[in-house]
Amino acid sequence: MRIRSIQVLGLGWVCLSLIILTATAGILDSKEEYDGIVKSLAREYRMPPELIHSIIKVESNYDPRAVSKKGAMGLMQLMPATAEQYGVNNVFDPIENIEGGIRYLKDLMNLYDNNTNLVLAAYNAGQSAVEKYGGIPPYRETIDYIDKIRRSGYRKSTIVSGSEIYRYVDEKGRTVLTNDYLAYKQHVTRNKKK
Prior knowledge:
Blueprint: H1 2-45, H2 49-60, H3 80-85, H4 94-111, H5 116-125, H6 127-133, H7 140-151, E1 166-169, E2 175-178, H8 181-193
Helix pairs in contact: 1-2, 1-4, 2-7, 4-5, 5-6, 5-7
């Protein structure tokens, strides 16, 4: 009887381990599924992709059809008014949702001088709450939200906009160095057509 208990317990731990591994693999698959979109948009808007991934993980756990009790939707959990403000027509479209969320984050970064905690507090609780309290609102949900983002991968006190330098040779043969990804991308696209 005692041996059977150990075997059952051993089997239970194996099953539990398989469930945990399967769940973790699903999350990794989801992150990998959206990694190309995140990196491309992060590059375009000069945002750290690890911050975007952390927000998506905490907001929706990579579920593009997630809807919160308060009405936030999609991967980055955009409220309807925010989605409309940033030109998101289909909040459940991963590209539109991520781009809208990034554009909103960029505005918050400008508003709060790239201060990670204030940007995240405003993203979670709204700009009016941050203004009302002159900083992080004393809401348990917002404090926990900031902590979860920090634990899930983005630990920097300021959000550093990527300033990768791109190099190309223009039509006149001059070497151009720029941190404007869109200008670089236009040049490369234009030259591919030739």
